Amino acid sequence: MKSVRYDAIVVGGGHNGLVCANYLARARQRVLLLEAADQVGGAAATESFAPGFRVSSCAHLVYLFDPSISAELKLADHGLVWSAVDLPSVALSQERAVLSISSDPTLSAGEWMSGEHKRFDALMARMTRFASVLQNLYTRVPPRLRNRRGDIVALVQAAWRIRRLGRDDMRELLRIAGMNIADLLDDELNDDRLKGMLAFDAVLGTRLGPRAPNTVFTWLHRLVSRAPAAHGGIMHPLGGVGALCDALSRSAQAAGVEIRTGARVESIMCDADRVTGVRVADGEEIGARQVISNADPQQTLLSLLGARELDTEFVRRVRDVPMAGTAAKLHLAIDDLPTFVGVDPEQARGRLVIAPNIDYVERASNAIKYGEYAPQPVIEITIPSLHDSTLAPPGKHVLSAIVQYAPYTLRAGWGAHRDEFADCVIAVLAEYAPDLPDKIVERQLLLPVDIEQRYGMTGGHWHHGELGLERFWMWRPTPGAAQYQMPVEGLFLCGAGCHPGGGVMGLAGRNAARAVLATARP
Ligand SMILES: Cc1cc2nc3c(=O)[nH]c(=O)nc-3n(C[C@H](O)[C@H](O)[C@H](O)COP(=O)(O)OP(=O)(O)OC[C@H]3O[C@@H](n4cnc5c(N)ncnc54)[C@H](O)[C@@H]3O)c2cc1C
């Protein structure tokens, strides 16, 4: 039996679901948010993985979160405190000095690099201008290709923003947008460490290697964090990334959102092509005029709604979204700080990267093409307990590492090879921090298949489906459904699977709320 009727039910309390629910409640909608897990946050939660040790379970650094959302939802008033801001990115090296990029971004290396600083500055300045164009698109609901005034105006504005870059920049943006990052970096820079780290930035969270087309675009996606309207730096919330979602949750509740955790939605109900509510795992049916799903597009449309409610061509397009993730997570509880060779204490607080050159990143990416894991993976490391004492007992530390590439399905099966992969990652870490293995007291490895199971993300994919120029803006998650509204009336998506994609940004959630509210207007 359908019980209470809400204006909107949000399925999933990831950060985007929380943002979306909040904006709807602020517009005086009666909103219920149902989260399957026992806590909110999804892939941006803080969890315990060993007695006394906690870690940001998937996302471990915040760089894309939109500052206007922080301000509008008053997250500071709801307990959000940053334990670190403007963290540097540090390229580890076995043969040479480490190289680091501060948040300005200023490049520093422990040795003379003829002309490289100038080249780097020029490249970053240009790419930041391009990322600003993207950032502007990111904060808006994408237009449709139809002859309605609002859509035409949005398309003209998008073209104008590119034109406003000036002739040289415009030509350059159009030239490089579909290119691969390896060619761009080889054209512009000389230093292998620098190129390796930037190439890794471009492919983080994707299944692409740096020589794959589209990787300049995926780099620009990350560089949106440098656009003038963004925060600009790499940040870490006190209490781990989950603390950001806790603040979002408190803000949403203050705005009137009712949040239920441990409430898995089993199906989205509809009648005559119109959503009527949801059925929860315990059998309860809850009615609502609109259902907004923070789950990924395949789970929402094929599992929760069901293909029978959709036309065949649309179902085919949803099935075609590549969903297999490649990023694994390794968490280490350590009883003392390891020494990363050549890294000073200030740098150790930052983001340490193992991607010594472009070929190394490319070779790591090759493995997944054959259903294998990268024996020499690219790794992003943080030791958040250096600035956040809530994560580990006194004197002890937590090391959190994103490891690429780990296939969703290992050809030989993960069962017997899970520990072997964890050992292999630790061996690579030990090449840069030889004393690390002796300090490990506990370890946890999350493969894409584990991430799928724990956080309900199909394929364990960072972006809820691959991101690329062909799956961006008006084409995300599929053409004809890029405006958050799905073909069934009253059903919307609000997660990373829609525009502008993954990363802890909050923009998909806010844009989706705008799309929902636009349909409510007469
Ligand atoms: C290994 C890894 C590392 C990452 N590192 C970073 C990083 O450092 N920085 C960064 O910015 N991004 C990072 N990301 C990406 C980022 O975590 C995600 O893009 C982002 O968290 C997605 O947020 P979301 O709110 O759209 O979805 P999710 O976080 O996936 O939330 C969806 C929510 O819906 C719930 N749900 C699903 N199905 C149901 C159902 N049927 N009923 C009820 N609830 C349901 C889930 O439990 C979940 O809470 C990383 C991703 C991965 C996989």
Task: List the defining traits of the structure above.
522 residues, alpha/beta, FAD/NAD(P)-binding domain, eight-stranded mixed beta sheet, seven-stranded mixed beta sheet, 19 strands, 34% helix, globular, binds flavin-adenine dinucleotide
> In angstroms, what separates the terminal alpha carbons?
30 Å
CATH superfamily of the domain at 2-47 and 65-81 and 238-322 and 459-520: FAD/NAD(P)-binding domain
What structural class should be given to the helix and strand makeup? alpha/beta
Rg (CA only):
22 Å
Mean pLDDT: 95
Contiguous runs where pLDDT drops below 50 for at least 5 residues: none
* CATH domain class of the domain at 2-47 and 65-81 and 238-322 and 459-520: Alpha Beta
Q: Helix count, per DSSP? A: 16
Query: What is the molecular shape?
Result: globular
- Helical proportion, percent range: 25-40%
Bound molecules: flavin-adenine dinucleotide
Looking at the structure, the CATH topology of the domain at 2-47 and 65-81 and 238-322 and 459-520 is FAD/NAD(P)-binding domain
Largest beta sheet: what is the strand line-up?
Answer: 8-7-6-15-16-17-14-18
Hey, roughly how much beta strand do the residues contain? 15-25%
